[in-house]
Amino acid sequence: MSVRIFDIRVPLGFPEENLLARVLLIIGVPPDQVENFSVARRGIDARRKGAIRRVYTADVSLRSSSLEEAVCSRVASARPHRAAPDPFPGTPVRPPPVRPVVVGAGPAGLFAALALARSGAPPILLERGRPVEERSRQVADFWKKGVLDPESNVSFGEGGAGTFSDGKLSTRIGDPLVEHVIGLFAEFSGLPELSREAKPHVGTDRLRRFCVRMREELASLGTLIRFGARVDEVETGEGAVRSVRLSTGDEIPCEDLVLAIGHSARDTVRMLLARGVRMSAKPFAVGFRVEHPQGLVDTIQYGKMAGRPGLPPADYRLAARAPSGRGIYSFCMCPGGEVIAASSGPGEMPVNGMSAHARNSGFASSGIVAAVTTADFGTGDVLAGVDLQKTLEARAFRKGGGEFGIPAMNLMAFLKGKDRNLSRGKALCPRVVRANLAGILPPRVEEDIRYGLERFGESMRGFLSQEGTLYGVESRTSSPVRIERENYESVTVKGLYPVGEGAGHAGGIVSSAVDGICAALHILGKYSGQRTG
Ligand SMILES: Cc1cc2nc3c(=O)[nH]c(=O)nc-3n(C[C@H](O)[C@H](O)[C@H](O)COP(=O)(O)OP(=O)(O)OC[C@H]3O[C@@H](n4cnc5c(N)ncnc54)[C@H](O)[C@@H]3O)c2cc1C
Predict the structure, then answer these.
(1) pLDDT for the residue 82
(2) Domains of the chain and any CATH numbers
């Protein structure tokens, strides 16, 4: 055990090597009683613009446990701390008679495969897209020339949807596995400090490194990885999984099938529905992506201290509720990043945001989205949300000139209805097309987005600026369907484990990874009676 001290506030320029001395002052213990000391978290508190503070959490082990207890009882900000146990105890199970199959090499699939492989049940991992090196070239081609590969793009391929992203690892789930997942991202992306950041982000450049390292790790544990292997059919018998059929024509027998297909595999979802996999329509959110010069956001958030050394590019989080009752909020905010065209099929233009680890593009963007529910979908069809997404993305595609151009509009022109030039921006796509974004979203949703933007202009003075640009359409915020499950297993097909964002049970990189691990531990539990050694 150690003592964890929270909320240690120091000025921005405070040298970290002096932190131990500060901690000893707080806990009132002499230096010779310290056995071990480490930074657990570091962050920034910019709520008071004139007095921005660095905020630390630190762990200290003392020479005696009674002294540790005494410190915890007398220091309000000190608590006993135990490191999270490793979720992969390493005592291998006897491999299941039929190798588990994992579909999708996004965070959910990769971490499920790792959990299985590290416990002696290396799976077959099937991914419709290409390995990250090839995929990165394909995505660069798409952004440059508008050449889209519907099987390998921003949504599909090794690493999944999050590879071309900011790689924010923040999550609200309080699962002990979170620390483990972030630890692996830190190790495999070559960013050891990541585990100590209050707001860890990997960046797309390092996520690609993570993918390669994860692939090596999985292969070294006996995982069979196949790229360009789209699952087109799940064969069942007596209500249980029997095999999967691939786009290559191959059939692979399986009894444990982890389905980690993400929020954009509409063809696969349609197939599953036809196969009797129970699912339901699920609320998600749609809107636009707003972009500002990073310097403007820094000034708004940091005031006079903007530009000081040690201050990262500023971020923001905004939320409002419209008179209609609908929630409007900022989504996937990317400081120092780019707006990206995120199409995974012809005739559609969803946008999103991405940044490199350095976050140094000079621009900040975020989705400004409004919640949509089944009431907005127009029909009770299970896939009505998917159809709504497709409709909005097709409208944006047309407004963008029909060759994967992104339609864009000056923020103030959108709000004031008076035409204005586009401000300078940074979008990765074949072209940015100045267009009127009105009419892309359903009228009531558009009205609420306008309401939200006005409120954000009040809560974040300077947000409503001529230098702001809106891009359409932000539509892949989460899955429009939920695949029904109990204990991670489909309620209608035995041996089928729908996980991650696509299954509607997680949102974001870390919670999807945790969901994948939990399903794998569930599968391993079936064979644990057969553990060896
Ligand atoms: C541009 C962008 C930026 C984002 N930024 C962030 C961020 O900063 N932080 C954050 O937490 N989240 C972010 N997200 C969300 C995050 O990426 C997802 O929540 C996460 O990737 C979901 O993981 P997953 O494994 O469930 O699905 P995915 O990552 O979507 O992976 C699913 C995989 O399954 C494969 N697949 C689908 N169908 C089949 C099939 N039939 N056969 C074989 N393979 C198949 C796909 O090709 C894909 O590789 C972002 C998403 C995007 C698109």
Answers:
(1) 83
(2) 2-81 (3.30.70.2700), 101-280+480-527 (3.50.50.60), 283-474 (no CATH)
* Nearest protein CA to atom 47 of ligand 1, as residue: 156
Confidence of residue 527 (pLDDT cuts 50, 70, 90): confident
Q: CB of 168 closer than 6 A to ligand 1?
A: yes
* Distance from C-alpha of 512 to C-alpha of 524, rounded to nearest angstrom: 18
Ligand 1 pocket residue status of 367, Cβ below 6 Å: no
Q: Which residues are CB-neighbours of 102 under 8 A, at least 6 positions away?
A: 109, 112, 113, 116, 123, 124, 125, 126, 257, 258, 260
Angle between helix 177-188 and 509-527 (nearest 10): 110
Convert the pLDDT of each residue in 135-162 to its tens digit: 999 999 999 999 999 999 999 999 999 9
Beta-bridged to residue 410, according to DSSP, are: 469
Q: Is 518 helix (H, G, I), strand (E, B) or coil?
A: helix
- For 301-325, the pLDDT digits (tens) are 999 999 998 899 999 999 999 999 9
Q: Ligand 1 in contact with 512 (CB < 6 A)? A: yes
What is the three-class DSSP state of 28?
coil
